[in-house]
Each structure stands twice: as C-alpha cells, then as structure tokens.
Amino acid sequence: MIVVRALLALGLLAGLYLLCLVLVLLDVGALVVLVWGALVQGRPLQAGMVMTALTTIPALWVLRGLFVAGAEAPETPGGVSVTPEQAPELWAAVTELAGRLGTRPPATVRLTAEVNAEVTEETRLLGLVGGRRHLYVGLPLLAGLTAGELRVVLCHELGHYAHAHTRLGAITYRGHLALRVTLDRLERSRSPHPSARGGRRQNVPVSWIWWPFVGYAMLYFWISSAVNRRQELQADAAAARIAGAGVAAEALWRALVVLPVAWGEFRGGHLDPMHARGYLPDDPLTVFAAMLAAPGYRARITGLARATPSGRTSRYDSHPSLERRLRALGGRGKPSGGSRTPASEAGFGVEPDTVRHCLFPGAEEGRAVLAWAEWVELTTETLATEPVRGLVRAARRVGGAARPALATVLDLLADGHAGRLASCLDPPEEKAALARLDAALFALVGQALVVRGRAVWETTWTGQSRLAWTGRGRAVAAGVTVGEVRALVTAAVFGGVREVRRLRLRLGALGVDPGAWLGHDAEGTRQAEEPVATMSVTVAVDAEESREDRRQFRLRLAGAALVGVLFLVTALSSMSGDHEDSEPASPPAGVFVTPWRGLNPGLPSPYVVPPELLRPGLDPETARRLDELLERGFVEHHEDAGKR
Questions:
Q1: Exposed end of the chain (fewer CB within 10 Å): N or C?
Q2: Cβ neighbours of residue 642 under 8 Å, at least 6 residues apart?
Q3: What contacts 353, CB < 8 A, 6 or more positions away?
Q4: Please, which pLDDT band fits residue 534 given cuts at 50, 70 and 90?
Q5: Is 432 exposed, middle or buried (0-12, 13-18, 19+ CB in 10 A)?
Q6: Taking a C-beta distance cutoff of 8 angstroms, is the pair 356, 284 a contact?
Q7: What values do phi and psi take at 591, rounded to 5?
Q8: What does the alpha-carbon distance between residue 246 and residue 301 come to, in Å, rounded to a whole number?
Q9: In angstroms, rounded to a whole number, what is the distance separating the alpha carbons of residues 590 and 594?
Q10: Distance from C-alpha of 522 to C-alpha of 484, rounded to nearest angstrom
Q11: What angle (nearest 5°) sits at the alpha carbon of residue 415, between those of residues 409 and 421?
Q12: Model pLDDT for residues 64-102, shown as the tens digit of each residue
C-alpha cells in the first residue's frame, strides 16, 4: 500500500507540472502560428495574436508559483522541545503507546500553544524510506484533558506513524502548497483593482488559464482529501483499540468542540489582555484548568455538550466530520458531571517556565510574573473596571475636572448631563450610549465599594465580573443586595436628580465618600501626582481616608467613654429612686446615620433613615419623605450605630 500511495501522490504532483507545461506550450504554439501566418503567408495581424502575446508573460508569472511553492519544505508548528528529563511522564506514555502500536517513537516531542496535536516525519525516496519523527502536543490539551483522554490523543497521532500516513506528508504538502499559491495568484490577477471604478473585475489576459487549474485542483483535492479522511478514521480506530471507544469518543469531542472555545476565550479574554498590560501568571495551565473547573464555566461546557455535532463537511476537507468520527467509534455517551483531574496535574505537567516561554516566546521580559491566584484577582478587577476608563475621560471632558471622582460623575448626572456623558464614551453609538454609561457607572460605584472594603469583584470566566459583598459590607448593607444597588445606579442614569440623591444616600449608608479620588490605576499602582484615566484600584484605602478613619475612631472612642459615664450616672440615680417597671423601648427600625462630615450640624445624631427610602422604587408618600430628608442634608452610615 505504501508503494501504491507513493505512486499516486507522485502522479498527482507530476500531473500538476505537466498541466503547467501543456498550458505554456499551447500559449507559445498559438503565438508561433499567428506570427508565422502574418510573416510568411502575408495575413494581417489579428487581435488574437496581440492577446496571445500579452498572455505569455502573465501566464509564466502565475505558473511560477508552482515551482517556487513546490520547492519549499513543509511548515512545522514550532513550539518548545522538551526532553525526557523535563517531561518524564509524557515521554514515558509516548514510548509505551508507540510500542503497543508496533511503531517507532518520535525523536522529539515539542509543545505548542494551539489546541492541536500533530506528527511529522522526514522521509526519503518519495516516502519509501522513513526518517526522523517529530510529535507536537498542544499545551491546552494537557490542562483540558484527563490523563486517559490525553493518551487517546497520543495514540491517535502515533497511529499515523503505525499506518505510515506520514510517509507521503512532504509530497502531499508540496502539491497542496503549489496549487494554493497558483490559485491565489490567479485570483489576485482577476480581482478588482483598487483604482477600478465601481469595483468591477478587470479584464486580465491570464483569465483563460483559470478553468484548467480549477478543474485540476478539484480533482487533486478530492483524491488527496479522501485519502486523508480515511487515514483519520484509521488513527481513531487505533486509539480506540488501545484506550477504549468511550474514552476515545469523549477525548475527541472535548479536543474538537470544548477546548477550542475555552482556550480562545481564556487567551482572548484574560491571558493576552493582561500580558499586554505587563502581567503573567506563574502557571498559566493551572489557571486554565481552574477556569474549566469553575461551576459557572462547567455550565457552559454542559451547554456545548447538548449541541449536536454537525455532519456536514466539504468534500475537500482533510478530516471527516465530528459526527462521522463519533459514529465510527460507537457514539459518545453522556459526559460525566463529576470532577476531572487534568493531565497536567496527573503527572503530565511541565515546568511553568517552559509553558510561559511556549505561550509567549521572547515576550516575557518586562512582564511581572504573579502567583496565579493573585493574577486571577488582579485580572478580575482590571477587566471589571475597564468601562471606567471611558467614563473618567468623559467626565473630564464634560465637567472640566482635572481630577474627577465619583462625585464628579454624580454631579453631572444631577445637572442633566447624562446624554453628554454618554456621547463622549467610545464608541459613540447613540442607541447603546446610555446603556454603556449605566454599565460604566456601576463599575465605578462597584470599585468605590471595593476600595472601601465593602465588596469584592468575583470572576465568572464567562463574561463580566460579578460584584459581591464582603462580610463587612453585608453587615453594613443591612439586607440590601448588590442587585438593588445596581438598580439604584440605573435609576440615577435615567431618573434625574432625585435618583442621583438616592444613590448618594445609599453610598453614604455604605460608608463610601463619593468625593474621595480613587488614586490607583488599573494595575493597582499608586499615582501620587497626576490623575489617571481609569480610577480602577486594588482593595486599599488611600492615605487621606486612613487619616479620616483614625480621627473618626478617636471620636467614637471618646463618645463611647462619655456614654459609659452617663450610663453609670443614670444607673446610680435610678437605683436611689422609686420607679415603676417598664419594658425598654425598642430602637426604631432603619439605618442609623450621622451628619455628612459637618455639612449640616443641625441634623440630629444619630438619625434613623427608614429602609424603604434606600431601596429601588418609590411611591408618592415615600418620595415626599425622601425629599424632606434630603432638604436637611446628606448623611452617611455610622458603623457603631447598631450598638446604640
């Protein structure tokens, strides 16, 4: 069979060059006939002669791609080579499985950054003599598959060696590349020129050789792709014979459906954006495995499991459809919902330094390498506060403040500038402008709560980060949920000055000063002088707030001492007099507050704000009571009020 396949591949490749030779000879022959007729027989020059002369040079230019591409060596995925000392379990599995399949193990094992595995072989004499073998394994497979599923992938690739599929790789590659380069040249010659009016296709003289090449390309791809699809099914059968059909089907489904989606979202949504900011996790594979194991992302994987694999495929595809491959393995059972131990944690792991070098070759310098848990926390906060960047720029543009704070945005909303703020956000889409303003304001409010220690950003891995109360924040919130705060933010964007005041009141009850400037950038770096465009911070309190907290603590301590003295005096006086027993008065229900840092000293302290005034939705009577309260001055939460 090897000799037959070698002869078939060689015949198809030779036919390609034969077609090229025939086309050139026909072109030159037609030109000779026309010239001979014009000079010897005295016939006048025809338009066809000029056209044929003009097509000779362009035809040779197009067909040159056959010889240039055919001389190139097959492309290799690259990656980082690992020795048996660097990946002992991986090498041991490769050697064992190669022995069970009755074939030679590869000479090198290389790790790549793609969700893929591949084998190549350096052959001689048209593939009749084998040579040095290379195995390429994608890093996402180590973290996304179990040890048994990874063995299936290795069995599949080694099965190509066992059935001598790689012997014809160089010849098949040259044929595919030569045809692809030639067809690309023809397509460019027939495509509209940028200067052509109306984008019309140009009348290029080489278009006459288009159809012969299209016909031969269809024949070549049809024959070679049919052989390739049959080879993939043979490799699947070899893997199922060693590891079992059920495990093989599950590994195939995860490697072709789940991991390409998950790895693309992980790199595009988390790893690459933070790498551009100068941060890398010390162990990227551990982070990826943690994402796959997260409850929220496991639900997404379950949704992918319900999807029916498409049975459609082009006749020119080199791989059969997933449905056909699963059907050949006997189908795929219901995926297990239990915990999965990644292969990277079951002995198939490699050094984190090797992983980082493979993912970002030559781009690690100048990047801070953080512990992976710390990196996840920083990534979550950074991506959650991304909308704040545009909002702060808009606030500086509309309000003119050189150092805008949350209060700056609230003041602009209260003054009716929501539309102007929204129009300054990027991109300026009119329909979604206010919605983006709403999201940006919630991110800013959420970050203010995070700075104050009232909340924390939690990653969901499937979209925008989620804001959740800390223990201290839940106690201060007095039963108010994050969702209700979110509703207050939306009402402030769309509802006008009254809703802005309600949001201020709620922030005061949570102990957040909207006027404090958030003096950290998106990576948590302290900004001492100039304001930044993000107002995105880590969980820390700036120096001004720390001094204010210490002053408030001393005042509260002095107040507590005074209350203790008054209590003793009152108790002693009550013991010396006659009085009737009575039930102690219950404290009024509500949120205890104190005046907003002296803005309204006439407001009694502590003051009780009914909870319904701080929740979304207002009836006319509640609105009237809120207006009366707001006329007397803004208030903030008194943390010791619950002890009174």
A1: N
A2: 592
A3: none
A4: very low
A5: middle
A6: yes
A7: -105, 120
A8: 18
A9: 13
A10: 26
A11: 45
A12: 555 554 444 455 567 899 999 999 999 999 999 999 999
Distances (CA, A) of 10 to 6, 127, 219, 253, 371: 6, 10, 14, 35, 54
Burial 317-337 (b: 16+ CB within 10 A, else e): ebebbbebbbebbeebeebee
DSSP string, 485-541: HHHHHHHHHHH-HHHHHHHHHHHHHTT--TTS---B-TT--B-SSS--S-----S--
Q: Is the peptide bond before 606 cis (omega within 30 degrees of 0)?
A: yes
pLDDT at res. 163: 85
Pairing of strands 455-458, 466-469: antiparallel
pLDDT digits (tens, 9 = 90+) for 599-616: 344 444 445 566 656 666
CA distance 226 to 421: 59
The CA angle 507-508-509, to the nearest 5 degrees, is 90
- Give me the helix-helix angle, 295-306 and 259-266, nearest 10°: 140
Q: Kindly give the interhelix angle for 482-495 and 406-414, rounded to the nearest 10 degrees.
A: 50
124: DSSP letter = B
Pairing of strands 368-370, 279-281: parallel
**CA separation, residue 98 to residues 104, 121, 249, 267 (Å):** 6, 15, 20, 33
The answer to whether 426 touches 432, Cβ cutoff 8 Å, is no
CB atoms within 10 A of CB 395: 26
**Cα dist from 512 to 125, 336, 505, 639, whole Å:** 77, 46, 10, 12
Which phi and psi angles does 628 have, rounded to 5°? -65, -40
With contact defined as beta carbons under 8 Å apart, do 203 and 162 qualify? no
The phi, psi pair for 470, rounded to 5°, reads -85, 175
State the SS3 of 571-582: HHHHHCCCCCCC
At 177 the pLDDT is: 67
The beta strands (E) that lie in 35-116 are given as: 80-82, 108-112
Q: Which tokens belong to 79?
A: 């990656």
| Contact status, residue 479 vs residue 471, Cβ threshold 8 Å | no
Residue 138, SS3 per DSSP: strand
Other residues' Cβ atoms within 10 Å of the Cβ of residue 230: 13
**DSSP state at residue 430:** T
* Token pair listed for 482: 């994050």
**SS3 state at 332:** coil
Strands 108-112 and 133-138: parallel
Q: How far apart are the C-alpha atoms of 601 and 184, rounded to whole Å?
A: 80
Angle between helices 245-253 and 147-162 (to 10 degrees): 100
CB 174 within 8 A of CB 182: no
Per-residue pLDDT of 434-457, as tens digits, reads: 888 999 999 999 999 998 889 999
Asked if 231 and 239 count as a contact pair (C-beta separation under 8 A), the reply is: no
Residue 478: closest CA among 515, 501, 508, 441: 508
H or E element that contains 343: none
Q: How far apart are CA 12 and CA 473, in angstroms?
A: 72
- Residue 203, both tokens: 């009348």
Neighbours of 467 (CB within 10 A): 23
Tokens 């953080």 label which residue? 370
Tokens of 436: 């983006």
